[in-house]
């Protein structure tokens, strides 16, 4: 194991949070999301349709899980949120000469719907850091954050794995064949 990887591995398993939502789950944001995504499922916008489907009230599309607790436009978190980050390791990589960053993939799994009025928060941890890899973009490390989302009753709503490749680009004109 390289010295760099050994240093990065020290960050794995570090837990951060809670990171709170700015607002409770609400009908206007759900409506805007559904309009933007072209999602016409009536359980998201019609109370009667939601009740007929077995819900007490309108529910949010599961894919909105992260939307409630994202950073504000100014880069601020909601009041009371942790100021740390599971991706603090990215700054270490930046300082070590890996300036490139690209989002690789995002996997979500859902446990239950969020309902109007729910307050969302999440906890995050750095789940893994790969060995140094070389790709067509450059040489670097795949870093995976696992976020677990909860409602105000501390019930798990869902989980999200977000993977980033932090890398040193190939010199101008060079590309890896991999």
Can you characterise this structure?
It is a single chain. The protein has 178 residues and is an alpha+beta fold. The protein is built from four helices and six strands, in the order H-E-H-H-H-E-E-E-E-E. A hairpin with a 5-residue loop joins strand 5 (138-150) and strand 6. The two termini are 22 Å apart.
Quick gist of this model?
The protein has 178 residues and is α+β, with helices and mostly antiparallel strands. The chain has helices at 3-9, 27-37, 47-52, 89-95, and strands at residues 15-20, 100-110, 121-129, 133-134, 138-150, 156-169. It is 17% helix and 31% strand.
Helical content band: 10-25%
State the CATH superfamily name of the domain at 3-24 and 74-169: Hotdog Thioesterase
Number of helices: 4
Mean of residue pLDDT values: 93
* Structural category: alpha+beta
Rg calculated over all Cα atoms: 19 Å
Unreliable stretches covering 5 or more consecutive residues: none
Number of strands: 6
What's the CATH class of the domain at 3-24 and 74-169, please? Alpha Beta
Shape: elongated
